[in-house]
Amino acid sequence: MKKSARRAEQDTPTGTTADEEVWELRLYVAGQTPKSVAAFANLKKLCEEHLPGRYKIEVVDLIQQPQLAAGDQIVAIPTLIRKLPPPLRRIVGDLRNRERTLVGLQLRSATMATEQGGISA
Amino acid sequence: MKKANSRSVMPRSLPKVPSGIQGLDEITGGGLPRGRPTLVCGSAGSGKTLMAMEFLVRGAVLHDEPGVFMAFEETAEELTQNVRSLGFDLDDLTSRKKLVVDFVRVERHEIEESGDYDLEGLFVRLGHAIDRVGAKRVVLDTIETLFSGLSNAAILRAELRRLFRWLKDEGVTAIITGERGEGALTRHGLEEYVSDCVILLDHRVTNQVSTRRLRIVKYRGTSHGTNEYPFLIDEDGISVLPITSLGLQHEVSDERISTGIPRLDAMLGGAGYFRGSSVLVAGTAGTGKTSVAAHFADAACRRGERCLYFTFEESPDQVIRNMRSIGLNLEPWVKKGLLRFHAVRSTLHGLEMHLAIFHKLVQEFQPQVVILDPISSLIRAGTSEDANAMVTRLIDFLKARRITALLSNLTSGDKALEKSEVDISSLVDTWLLLRDIELGGERNRAMYILKSRGMAHSNQVREFLLTDRGIELADMYLGPEGVLTGSMRQAQEAREKAAALVRKQEAEGRLRERARKQEALEARITAIRKEFAAEEEEANRLAAQEQAKEQVLSVDRDAMARSRQSDVHEAPRPRGNLSGRT
After folding, report:
1. A74 in contact with B, Cβ within 8 Å
2. Which chain B residues have a beta carbon less than 8 Å from that of A90?
3. CB contact (8 A) between residue B115 and residue A96
4. Are B116 and B122 in contact, with CB atoms under 8 Å apart?
5. How far is CA B71 from CA B100, B103, B141, B342, in A?
6. CATH architecture observed for domain A2-110
7. pLDDT in tens, B300-332
8. ipTM for this model
9. Residues in chain A closer than 8 A to B120 (CB atoms)
10. Beta-carbon neighbour count of residue B350 at 10 Å?
11. All structural domains of chain A with their residue ranges
12. How far apart are CA A67 and CA B413, in angstroms?
């Protein structure tokens, strides 16, 4: 089942649009917890690899700005939201699983999928 | 006041928060545990969300405890619309900072999980919402939705445990709703975490009739009712009926109230029913049960009391029209607000629901008199045992409030009349029996008092007449063929009247005869007296003649003696001696 889902995502034209657009990402955290730190580090690394120069990461600390949690329907922490390009995507966790993070962000091409899937596993 | 009472009864129990839901606080002895979470579980459509929402709204409105509603299934707009029919204006409460509704959407297909996470986001949102209005009450409806949105059950379980702990630390009184699971209270075992108070809602359908029930499965550190209590959801929200908790401690009254039928009052020791007693009017079809009930209602309204009239077979208009034909006009009482009809088909709800409605209407209308016409039709809404239990509870409930209840009961012809269909004869205080008597090609009504506790009452069967001036009770005639009713009674009455006339005339005749005789006799007496007087007169006259004659004779004798000179020297003798000597 998961395989078919992946295949469906490969057909989306994210690969082409991604080349031109600037990615807007928002990471919701709650204080400097090990999970938030890890999530930010993982995200940064991943963006450098896949979206060099084409990404913006905004970190929202809900401890400081709790009123922002409801707007983006934040329940779990950390939560990564892909604001742009549309559609909105949402990944929860410290992003330690690269493959799933890439699937979530719809960043993976077919070749990368097998390659990185193998590496992260 | 009730709260204060229950507190004083159980001084050592947990501090409680009145839920504001009618009846629930009575069962729980004061409300939900203060500062702790309560689990409300039940299957879909059992009223969990409504109960939780009412808890918040009542808290905000009645107890000045603002609340936070975290909705996992419905948006704030949907919720607002759904509860508007119950008279809850969420928008108003929100704008007055009494309530925060936060819709939490967790859609699995929108979420990719990668690595470790926690539910701190939820905590932050909840904490923020609580801070915004200073909430004392929190509802999480239905938090189990998280299990379908997030896949890592281990994390969820740990986080839920932490959440409930955190709620306790925050000191908010919370309701957590949970979907009923197979063989367990909730699908994901929430009862494991929320263990202070668990309320189970149930929505059962028996014989195509649905009834909502509530049961307190668990309430740590306090005594509580353990039965299943029926509850209602209507335009005023939820009302739970703590009826099964009633005992037999009601106070009794010596006050008597009129039945509305003077002759029946006379039969009941001259004063009518006891206030707060229960009266059963039993009879076969068409014997006038409703008329007896209507008279009682009319009498109550005349005294300025309120009367609640439940009718299961006729519409209010029909009752009013029919009663007008026997000279009872109930309409003005309805207009004055003293008489309220509640017409409902018995099969519309289950018995519990009927009971719930009675309860609610009685609370609302505060009547002194309640009429149920006829209770026998309630059997159709359940089994005979259920109906019996329900009527018992109803009578207890009314007695505890010193409300006089009149129940009519239709007995079918093939059964013994003394056996009421709903076997409640032992519960009622006064039992009137109406029956028909078929005689001489006529069917007439008769009434007698089968029993009436605590008062002297007539043992006579009376003929029961429905006239255009209301019910009249006439004496029965005992003829050679048995009791006479209807036209036979009337004929008998006429015969007796004729006989009485004859007797009267005869008596008068005799009287005149005697007067005449007396006159005659007196006349004779006078005549005899006159005769006697005449005779006496004659006798006197004769005696006088005799004396005169004697005197003359003695004078003659003296003269003769003197002439003979016989006793010259002797003095003359007195007359008497002279006569004596002769």
Report:
1. yes
2. 110-112
3. yes
4. no
5. 10, 5, 5, 37
6. 3-Layer(aba) Sandwich (3.40)
7. 999 999 999 999 888 999 989 999 998 889 999
8. 0.76
9. 30, 33, 62, 76-77
10. 24
11. 2-110
12. 74
